[in-house]
Structure formats: C-alpha cells, structure tokens
# Entry
Amino acid sequence: MGYIQVKCTNCGKWVAADSNHPRATCTYCQATFSIDNSGDSKNNYMNIYNNSYQQAVTPDTSEKLTYYNGMGNKPKKKHKITKKKLLSFMFLIIFVVSGVMFYIEYTKKPEMIEPEEYKPTPSELEIASEETEINGLRFKLAKDVDFAKERKKHNNPDIIARLEIPELFNVLVVKSDNNSYYLNYSINRERDVRGSEFLDYRVKPTSKQVNIYGHNSRDPNVKVAFLKLEKFLKKDYFDSHPYIILQYDGGKSLYEIKAIKEIYQSNREHMYVDLKGQTFVNHVKAMTSSPIYSRNVSYDENSKILVLQTCSHHWDNAFYIITAVKLDYKF
# Structure
C-alpha cells in the first residue's frame, strides 16, 4: 500500500490519499473526489513511499509538507499562542514578581534611627525648676508659662494650656475645632507623626470634665510626652506621683489621680464630657472601676475631673486612661 499527495478538486488543498483507492476525501473541506493517477501533471500527485518519512513540495505553492508512512499517523499540529494564553502568562509573571517583592519587603529589617536623631516635640518644656510642697509631698515644679509669649514663639493661637506631671513631663496643650488635626501636626502647625498633646475641642480648661489626648510610642527613643505615662504602670511610681497640674490663661488647677485603667477603644465612656448630677457620679465610677491601680480620692456630683488618654501597646486597639479629680487647692 502506498500513499500519494493529491490536490482537492473542491478547495485546492493538498492532501494525502491511498494510491490503491480511486477516490479520496479532503481533510480540510470533507469533499470526496476521484483520483487520476495516470501521471497527468494536471492532477499534480506525488508518490510518498511506504515506511518512509518524506518532505514533499506541492508544485503550485512550494509549501513544504511533512507526512508519515501509511500507518495512518497524522503530523502533529503546531500549538498556537492565543491572546488568552499570552494574557494568562503575563498575569502569572506579574503575580510571581509581586510575591517575590512582597517577601523581600516583609523580611527586610527596618533601618534603625539612632537615638540622637530624635528630638523632643516642640510642645515640651523644661521640668523640675522649683521645689514646692503639695499636701505634705515635696516636688520640683516647672515655672508658669507666659501664654502670649508661647503663642508668638510658635506662631500658633491654638495654644491653650500647660500640662505638668511633676518631675515627669511639662507640655503645652493646644486646641483645634476637631479631635484629628493635632494627631498629625506639631504645635508649630508642621506635619509631624508624633502630633501634639491637645484638648478635646468640646471642652475648656475649666470645664467639668477636661479630656487631653496624646500619642504613645512603641519605640522608647521616640520623644513623645505621653509615652512617659507608662511609668504609672509601676505601683511604686503610681503611689509616689499623685498630682497633675493644668495651667491656663488666668489660672492653674491641681488634680489628684484617682486611677489608671486600660480599656479597649470600643469603650467610649470617657468620651462623654457633659454629664451632670448622679449620671456624672456613675460615669466617674465606671471610668475608674477595674483599674490597674487606684487610690482613695473622693468625688461627688459637684466634682471636676481631668482625663488623660494615650494608646496602649499592651493590648491591641486599646487606651490607657488616667482619671484625676480636681482638688480645692490654691497655688
């Protein structure tokens, strides 16, 4: 049995056919036609020998064709690179490269900033200048500030108070028309991730409840004043430092710390700043219950309180809250 190459009389394609059969079927258009193997060149057929692997050239197109022997094996089709395959390949490359880059960035050690590159925030003032006795305890207190001078120095009329915890920190406090601006701006009104210590926009330094907020830091070298509040997590420090001083235009108040407490950020009790009567008493009780440490400081519906808030890094999404009660004390 031998195979020949014949030209389809319907579509003109060259196909392989059995030379022992008078008819052939086109593998392209499926048309059936007669084979004239008389040797007439008009039929343009060529012999492909048994058990051979030949390359034949069609007389009219010079197209190179490859055929196997007469065992019925067809030549393998070439795989076409479709647009879909190309896009899939490109997305795979992007995915792999992105994964490698993410792994490199994730495992890269952060660059450490030398401690001397850190500077205190502009709101921090000098501490411990004059020794003073308060209710039988002696402390070194900072001097009072001239607010007009400080506002001019920092070119910022938002400076509204000075907050001092004796021998711990002494900072200027600002107030905006919202509780977000000074999270990211210094007292000089310059962009600063350390922010500033600021008064709740809903209250005044003389309000029944005064809330002051400030950033904490996981890095002990980063100079933010409220990082030092973590010292109150030690019982001996809590016991030996009971007072907070708040100076403002025309006056100065002394508060005694009632409790330090850790709360989740979802606990908004301390954010209610305008409560009165028995509701206020219950409010203070709720803020100081289940504390880390507390002391016996009495309060009633006529009391005034100061609340300091900073982030806790002990729990996720948590705050440290220090609640202090205003004393009837004259400086």
